[in-house]
Amino acid sequence: MGIQRKDDYEARRGHLAELSEIELEERFWQLANQVVDPLLELARTHTTPSIERSVLLRMGLNSLTAKAIVEKALLNGVLEHGAGHCVWRYAEIFGLEIPQAVERLARGEGWKEIKVLFGEGKDNA
What we know:
Elements: H1 9-12, H2 21-45, H3 49-58, H4 63-75, H5 83-94, H6 98-107, H7 111-117
Helix pairs in contact: 3-4, 4-6, 5-6
């Protein structure tokens, strides 16, 4: 014979009993947002090399170039700003097309300027 569970459903739902269907739905979404908001904030403020490579691949870079840019962004302490963001801002500031910016950054050029742009101090690479 299995374990018997005390049925306390009526007691646990007491605070919800007087709510209408619309109020219950609003309460559900309020609680769902409370659970999800910290996850969204964490995703907004944290990244990984894998995520940044994926972003660059979706920008049309090949995997070797994406890997090179992510490694250089990590080495220079700017990965937290987003590898794709680094490429885009570098291209924008220097009036380059994205492929030109990608080529330069993959070769190791421009990281000093990116670090200055993001206020990350002196060059490490």
